[in-house]
Amino acid sequence: LIITSFVSEAGGNDRQYLPVKDMPSLRKVMEDKLTEHNENYAAMNLVLFDDAVNHVCRISRITENACGNALLVGVGGSGKQSLAR
């Protein structure tokens, strides 16, 4: 079960946390956001597999809070910095 706010149709402060109906729709939203990010900043060529999608949803939930902080732990080259962007 994945619950996130960036698949909500509402924008701004009216976002709601909603359960994701299916993984392909969530993956499509994330690929669109990645494309948007690549147009504005340095390109990141990421493969969004299921675990990466789950981690991005968790990181997003944490950082959207007013004092949200997270410590990402893992071996070097595992994509911690890329997923946090």
Evaluate the radius of gyration. Answer: 13 Å
Instruction: Classify the beta-strand content into a percent band.
Output: under 5%
Determine the N-to-C terminus distance.
23 Å
| Average pLDDT | 82
Strand order of the largest sheet: 1-2
* SSE series: EEHHH
Biggest sheet character: 2 strands, antiparallel
Low-confidence stretches: none
Task: Tell me the overall shape.
Answer: globular
What's the helix count?
3
Query: Helical amount among residues, as a percent range?
Result: 40-55%
Structural class determined from secondary elements: mainly alpha
Number-wise, the strands total 2
How do the helices and strands line up, and which of them pair or pack?
Elements: E1 3-4, E2 18-19, H1 23-40, H2 50-64, H3 80-84
Antiparallel strand pairs: 1-2
Main attributes of the structure:
single chain, 85 residues, mainly alpha, two-stranded antiparallel ribbon, globular
